[in-house]
Design goal:
With about 260 residues, the protein is mainly α. It has helices at about 5-15, 25-40, 40-55, 60-75, 80-100, 105-120, 125-145, 150-165, 165-175, 185-200, 205-215, 220-235, 240-255. The longest helix is centred in the middle third of the chain and has 21 residues, at about 80-100.
Length: about 260
């Protein structure tokens, strides 16, 4: 058998291995997942992305999209065990996506997002364990894509959440837990990065919701109200937007 024939057979076998018994290929599963996610059927979308990964374990597109879907499903899941499992899956998918494409800003962002969401579900002290890598991954994403609105959001919230730690916990992190980077956090950086996220992607409700929270923390009541009122008028475009709109309405009421 000559080399050309061997290569042709190998290619055919790879193609067969990437097709399920029902005829769905990796590409088919990803397209189906994209369609379900666009329709806000994120649980169904995740199943399709995971099905693609059973056919091709290191498929970058499927890994990134599975990580995103898992984070979205975990964020407002009331079951703590399910939420933790979803964030753990998102983290692993993002790490595998990075292994498949180390120069991907999106993969770095997805890892930062998964770790950050998991951190917010922990006690204030336990958040410290996640905070350094969250920052590192988000900064790497911004190095690769300075206009990545998701990474800008993560960096903004990293600063905000560090500033929201009580003084003792922040001191503990800075001086005893190897977290000197915590001393670099500021409200100015929180606000600046979230404002940049809104400027890059002005229709994304979650950017404005968290920016409003920083305004409120800084006693900038009027600008917080403006963001919450914008959210009340905004159409739903992402899976968790109904939850974000509920949060905004509740916080707006508290400010009035």
């Amino acid at each position: 058998m000559n080399l050309r024939a061997a290569a042709s057979i190998a290619s055919m076998l790879v193609g067969l291995a990437a097709t399920k018994a029902d005829g769905q290929s990796v590409a088919d599963e990803i397209v189906s997942g994209d369609r379900e996610r666009a329709a806000l059927n994120v649980a169904s979308a995740l199943k399709h992305f995971e099905a693609a990964l059973t056919l091709q374990r290191d498929n970058y597109d499927a890994l990134v999209k599975a990580a995103q879907a898992a984070v979205e499903l975990g964020e407002f899941n009331a079951n703590a065990a399910q939420r933790t499992a979803l964030y753990a899956s998102a983290e692993q998918y993002a790490r595998r996506a990075l292994a498949a494409n180390p120069s991907s800003a999106e993969a770095h962002f997805e890892l930062a997002q998964a770790l950050g969401r998991n951190a917010l579900a922990q006690s204030a002290r336990d958040r410290i364990k996640f905070a350094r890598e969250v920052r590192e991954q988000a900064l790497e994403a911004l190095k690769l894509d300075p206009q990545h609105s998701g990474a800008l959001h993560v960096i903004g919230m990293w600063n905000a959440e560090v500033m929201r730690l009580n003084g003792f916990t922040r001191m503990l992190a800075k001086n005893f837990l190897g977290g000197k980077v915590f001393g670099e956090a500021s409200w100015d950086d929180a606000q600046r990065n979230l404002e940049r996220a809104v400027a890059v992607d002005p229709d994304r409700i979650v950017h404005r919701l968290d920016l409003a929270g920083v305004y409120a923390d800084r006693r900038d009541r009027q600008r917080a109200i403006e963001q919450y009122e914008w959210i009340a008028r905004a159409p739903v475009s992402d899976f968790n937007d109904p939850h974000y709109k509920e949060d905004a309405a509740r916080l707006l009421k508290a400010l009035r």
